[in-house]
């Protein structure tokens, strides 16, 4: 399979599955929020997310899955694009019944609603800082798609666009693919907009602090003590195919250092790490899987921290709250799952910090942003790159 960015299956705004329906592209709508009051505003921020269907309807779930599988087609070998699309359709049909059942059990995904709330909170924070900015939501696999956000920015006549993937740990099929898609869509509109992206920002001190305090407060409310040898802290990270790590992704390093930072703040040395893998293809993924990881826990109870997520979604509400809980109880473990701090009042400030250099037009290095190595392209910055 050829490289995603240059090969025969490069996905642009016109690819067959990327249909946005009747989504409006201008004005203040369901996925756009204006910060400030200046009619001459020329900058925009796109908060990018994975996306999930808000209902369990098959007509929503199958296309969503099909987009995901086609987007990751280079994990297998195909002779033609038609073969890759057919394989994506087959995988989507296979996975759909299980995912539909999950959505029915949790009442649909709240991701879209929470993503729009984060956009609004960021708009308010930027306005409070004096920036006249348009803010958008762009989803990788559900509407409003990333292309919709780019089209809205073009129609709004913006000169500058800043991309912020709302994935705290920078991964290839999330942060990098999302930024690639947005830049391609911006270029396709030919507006000449200046494009910048912040791919990784989990090292932001306030973000680390709010994740730790979210864990600390939950543990206290549950009447638990992480220092108790009968209580084990379990980090659950979203898994990734080893193919991406072998190609140079630093995702596994980010997972390890996040665990290290949180446990240092918590004052504990022992913890368990597991990965939530989606092994729909016969390829190796990160190990150990979360279900296998908890088998080795010697404590009486586990506190599960969903470290990769900034929204409640099927991976937390179904995979952890239902499926992992059943596994834990079968092992005789009492399970407590930490809620995702998607509405923490400090989160908009973190996001505003990483985009502020591009709005105020000063050196991003002043805010410790450096050239991203996971996406080594001009205008792509992160807090994760080595200092050298």
Summarize the structure.
This protein is an alpha/beta fold.
Strand order of the largest sheet: 1-3-2-4-5-11-10
User: Between the first and last Cα atoms, what is the distance in angstroms?
Assistant: 33 Å
Query: Any idea what the radius of gyration is?
Result: 21 Å
Beta-strand share of residues: 5-15%
Q: What is the string of SSEs from the N terminus onward?
A: EEHHHEHEHEHEHHEHEHHEHEE
Q: What's the overall geometry? A: globular
What are the segments in which pLDDT stays under 50 over at least 5 consecutive residues?
Answer: 1-31, 36-40
| SS class | alpha/beta
Supply the number of helical segments: 12
Average predicted confidence as pLDDT:
88
CATH C-level class of the largest domain is: Alpha Beta
Number of strands: 11
Oligomer: single chain
Q: What is the third-level CATH name, the topology of the largest domain?
A: Rossmann fold
What share of residues is helical? 40-55%
Write down the domain tally.
2
Largest sheet: 7 strands, mixed
Query: What would you say the CATH architecture of the largest domain is?
Result: 3-Layer(aba) Sandwich
